[in-house]
Write a structure and sequence with these properties.
By secondary structure, the chain is α+β, with helices and mostly antiparallel strands. Helices cover about 45% and strands about 20% of the residues. The chain is globular, with a radius of gyration of 21 Å. About 35% of the residues are buried.
Length: about 350
């Protein structure tokens, strides 16, 4: 794909220690190749469900910076429809927050059953560990993606609400700060990045603090987000002990600080506790099979994912995925080969994917 992308993007010269940056412009490609580029970019975290029918109408111009461990994308796009559903969020291991600052155009959708409407100038908060759908008219906006762990100690109880359009004075203050930050990005250096990164976390924590309080109607509207945050706590508790074949609902509830009945209630949308644990085991197994050295035995992958023996793991893996662990390993090898080729060709999607998975790592 690299040959088709020639001229579609450029990497900023880092000789003066400027912030790492990628410039992407689908318009530099022949119309028939623009959709491939946009799919590659969006499919890192989302499923693209709709773009303009005529390839020549597809617009995607984006500058992407790394401010320390914060990925900032300033983009102009044609109408798109995208979604991030629960199975994708469980499987790909991307556990980040995203803030979207709208400049022009209208963004609508839903997150955890809550309707989303973002007008120009609006601030939308999203949790990439939770499902949501978005539709954008021709628009320009800035996105800020940051690792969950970087904000845990700064956010109010329950974390960042998924799908909340921030309102009032906190929204105005945060908008002013983020707008000034984006305007300054071309002039910042790598040496300045850690200080401004921490300042951004602190500003976000201060502006979201009011979200932790409010009247009863605010609490009622926030219930889906509160439940989502509790499910995030459960997920982290499960992931920390996926290697344990004796992992039980009682142990998960204890680590998450919940009663057993609360655990079962919160996990009902995920198909139940057992189904959720199995899905997490499968997600870890697929990542390990796709990325680890072939010298690692499948039996070792099985043990790392909490299966008592290779036969049990292979049976469960084939039942859940439709392929054997060996086939998954071969598929992963092919994908890694393609990623290496794309990296050699300068594929921007590969670079962004590397940045995303490198956050807080």
């Amino acid at each position: 794909m690299g040959s088709r992308l020639a001229g579609a993007f450029a990497f900023a010269d880092a000789s003066n220690r400027a912030l790492p940056k990628i410039e992407i412009d689908a318009g530099a490609l022949a119309p028939r190749h623009r959709s491939d580029l946009v799919h590659d970019l969006l499919n890192i975290t989302w499923e693209l469900t709709g773009v303009p029918e005529r390839p020549e109408d597809l617009i995607w111009r984006s500058d992407v910076w790394m401010l320390g461990q914060i990925m900032i994308g300033d983009r102009q796009i044609s109408p798109v429809h995208k979604q991030r559903l629960a199975p994708r969020a469980r499987a790909d291991g991307i556990d980040h927050y995203q803030i979207l600052l709208s400049r022009t155009g209208l963004i609508t959708g839903d997150a955890d059953g809550v309707d989303i409407v973002v007008q120009p100038g609006g601030l939308l908060l999203l949790d990439l560990a939770r499902p949501w759908r978005l539709s954008c008219t021709p628009s320009s906006h800035v996105t800020f993606v940051m690792a969950r762990d970087a904000l845990t100690s700064l956010l109010p109880a329950g974390g960042m609400p998924n799908g909340l359009v921030l309102q009032g004075a906190p929204a105005a203050l945060l908008t002013q700060y983020l707008t000034a930050l984006v305007e300054s990005l071309p002039y910042l250096t790598v040496a300045q990045a850690p200080h401004l990164e921490q300042a951004t976390y602190n500003m976000l924590g201060a502006c979201l603090a009011p979200c932790g309080a409010g009247a009863g109607d605010r609490l009622e509207r926030a219930r889906p987000q509160i439940a989502a945050r509790a499910r995030g706590t459960i997920q982290r508790a499960v992931d920390a002990r996926l290697h344990d074949p004796l992992l039980s609902p009682e142990a998960i509830a204890n680590v998450a600080g919940l009663s057993r009945s609360a655990l079962y209630r919160l996990m009902q949308p995920e198909g139940g506790v057992a189904a959720f644990v199995l899905a997490r085991r499968m997600a870890r197994a697929r990542r390990m099979l796709a990325t680890l050295e072939p010298s690692m035995r499948i039996a070792d992958v099985a043990a790392a994912c909490g299966f008592q023996c290779e036969a049990q793991f292979s049976h469960s893996f084939r039942r859940e995925t439709g392929i054997t662990p060996s086939e998954a390993r071969r598929q992963g090898a092919r994908l890694l080969t393609r990623a290496s080729e794309d990296a050699a060709d300068g594929n921007p999607a590969t670079q962004i994917r590397d940045w995303l998975f490198g956050m807080a790592g």
